[in-house]
Amino acid sequence: MTPEIAKDEARKQLVANWSSLSRIFLSPEDDASKDILLKYMEQILFGLHDFLRENVGITEEVSLKTLSDQFMETRICEHPEKMLTEVITDLIEEIAPQAVNVASPYFVGHMTSAIPFFMVHLKTITAALNQNLVKLETSKIVSILEKQVLAKLHRLIFKRSKQFYKEHVQNQTTMLGSFIDDGTLANLTALWTARNTVLGPKAGFDGVESEGIDAAYKAYSLDRCVVLVSRLGHYSLRKTGGILGIGNKNIIEIETDQDFRMDINALEKAINDIEQDRRRTRILAIVGIAGTTETGTVDPLRKIGEICNNNGIHFHVDAAWGGPTLTSEKYRGILDGIELADSVTVDGHKQFYMPMSCGMVYFKDPCKLDSIAYHARYVNRYGSADLGRKSLVGSREAASIILDSALKIMGTKGYALLIDHGIETARAFAAEINRRMNFELITDPELNILTYRCCPANLCNGLQSASPHEKRSINKKLDNINTVIQRVQRESGKSFVSRTSIFVEKKYNEEIVTLRAVIMNPMTTVDILKEILDEQEDIYRRFFL
Ligand SMILES: *Cc1c(COP(=O)(O)O)cnc(C)c1O
Description:
By secondary structure, this protein is α/β, with parallel strands linked by helices. The protein contains 19 helices and eleven strands.
């Protein structure tokens, strides 16, 4: 029998019955299967980065159409269709080659990158334990451990007194923060508490959570509530506006200054305009961004914080990206003023290098989450210490195990090495872009993100002196050139930078297409970045000269 026929024979015998089910529930089908599983798992667990290099994203570009044509079947098989080992082999031999090798040091386009190999071990153990943090009855010590990790990060951000942490680290009635799926839900949680505080219960009114937004506006004599954020705010904030019922058009964009940070004068003017507006308006929150998604710039947190504190406005800091910069002695000053925040979002799957996905939200006031508390008869009873009582989500994994272990393995100094490498490599990359005739740096890397564009000397030299009309037409040409460069480079499969468009106020007064690089992979070197620029220049020559 050839191996293929043998496989077919084995497949014919696959039936869903108790004996086959109890076998597959507990162990691999047979010794041969076990050997295959061990072979792959050994590669993944002990040679992760080699494994990814050799197996992931290694094929030529295949069109999405061709791929989707292979995924048209919509019936679920009734009887088992494949053995476990076949499924695993398929994943590694069929799926992985067409997936994206985000761990490649040439993949510098997004906030998703290589992770330390031990993260996979920690994730595996977390999955094996399968604790559910919605309640103590399904997590016990892990809920307690989680409170400790939350306090550690809270302390990194807010630096409250030793006494404060002693009082709250294991306090069953207060919460310093909360783990949640991602940064989007962390932002939503923060603004949910802000809304419920501003429109909370009072005499004759049960609060917005109970009575809804219409009744709340009536009770508080308001026409609308707004949230202020710079024009570089993450789009999750607009979702939040929709979900919280204030409307996403009331997430108001504040202009940025020439360094792409929230313009404080524009903020003060907006607050003033809102006071003068004939519509009766409450500001639910002002959001400062610690590392914008597009440019990595950090808003003037201290100034925004002071304005909020003076006006009794909730100050939220979206540090989904930049939060872990606080581990770096050298660069934590960039986030100066973050401790003035009422709430802070941090993503674990970004610069804490955790596997997908882990968001967190922290509150200065350990009672803030009371404003979103929910109870049920079978879990999260009144007075229980279940973490699910004050959370947007129900069941969830113990991501805290992974973060806590990683912090122990790396220490803040270990993380700082990664952060410093990212920032310093990005700065060296910016210098290289400035050195090259055919490139223009658009946003300087304050942290480890920068934007730039290919701007061939013959087009760029005329740009400064051009009339507004000519400027626009040259920028249109450049938009097209950069769009093509980004696409061709991605499709040729070696390197990846992303593409966005940035409103460049002073220089052009218009939105232009830019290339965007995010430097977080410790294996990404300046030489690699130079190669990426060389390839981009090459593409320009091939397509446009
Ligand atoms: C990534 C990011 C978010 C959203 O986080 P997700 O985890 O993708 O939901 C929000 N704000 C900023 C600044 C981000 O960089």
